[in-house]
Amino acid sequence: SQQGEEDPQALSIQEGENATMNCSYKTSINNLQWYRQNSGRGLVHLILIRSNEREKHSGRLRVTLDTSKKSSSLLITASRAADTASYFCATGDSGGYQKVTFGTGTKLQVIP
Amino acid sequence: DVKVTQSSRYLVKRTGEKVFLECVQDMDHENMFWYRQDPGLGLRLIYFSYDVKMKEKGDIPEGYSVSREKKERFSLILESASTNQTSMYLCASSPLGQGKSGANVLTFGAGSRLTVL
User: CA B21: distance to chain centroid?
Assistant: First the structure.
């Protein structure tokens, strides 16, 4: 079964606006990551937040993690047309095998 | 530039054929993964391997097998391809193996789009 569910499935905004994507997961985790996928290509790692962290920033990206609610959010500020892509959350399990499972993704369109 | 290379970008196969998808990484990573990606379903983990000759089932292993004879190479095998295995297949690797502490950041290949007719 899918570990993460993302919301919304699709998001369309104007350039310059902020984009917020949410991720919910089911089991205990060691860390949560966000990845980006441009159309038809492999995924690229954006940012990682550990289970003992609540918020993390990287450039225009801000990630929050609420382990009590088993949820995370990714905020992209001042969006650009080049941010148009699909965004996925991924969870690393707390077991020993380093399994990483992904959510269903949010498709973001930034209109110039 | 570190890389994960998937041998075929596009493949077309017939139902019942045996299909091999190859993945090679040059980063000396411990872990390797195979996912399939379908619209609306995101990425689903098929198998992963945390060491040579070691493998673990993911969430959807049925109809697939894997082989990891060398650290850098992880193969996905469809013993008898079926039309419901038409999909994008993504290989990834990460540095941390079994029992290692830290966070596993994945590096992905470009993907192999398989069509089974």
Answer: 7
